[in-house]
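Example record

Each entry pairs one chain with its bound ligand, zinc ion.
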Amino acid sequence: MGLFDSIYAALACPVCRSVKEREIQTKKGPCLMLRLEVGDTIEPFFYGDYWIEEEWDCDDCRKKMPEESQWHKAFIHCINGLIVEVTPEKPPPSDRTWETAMKRSKNPPLWLRRLDAVKAEMKTVRFPRTAQEGFRQCADLSETALGWFRQSVRDGHPRASAEELEKERCLLVARFSAAEARRIVKWKKERGRYFRG
Ligand SMILES: [Zn+2]
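Structure tokens for the complex follow.
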């Protein structure tokens, strides 16, 4: 069969009724011998809601069956490339196949076309490789931010003493905290509106 990827899902055999994890091989992914399941993503990512139609055979009864009745259908339901479900029945709507998703993708939405710009920018960023390195970057960033903050307080009060500057800094921090608290209250309200499950 050459290279492929495998999607694993628990499915009932329509012949012997055994329910177990099945290997569903597909050539519609990157063909890197990946082991995928619900919750994983499968490239190429197409925009929208679509399903991949594949077949699998049952370990328990394959040898007792003639070749033509060994194969059972499985539908791998994807949303923007995320595998959300593997089912023996065609998920509705029935025209949203991998093939139509692929054809439609030649006209991708604007945000998807801009992904290259995002990717180019990401390439210029060096992300931390270890927790320690990440922690150090965080500490550096907050030290830099604090430095800028102190500098801007000094610039705003050119004739103030060190004590006055410190007092002004504390006042500003207190105002930031109050604003943050108000923001959290507002966010919780908005979150309730948009993400209520
Ligand atoms: Zn079976």
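The longest helix spans residues 162-195.
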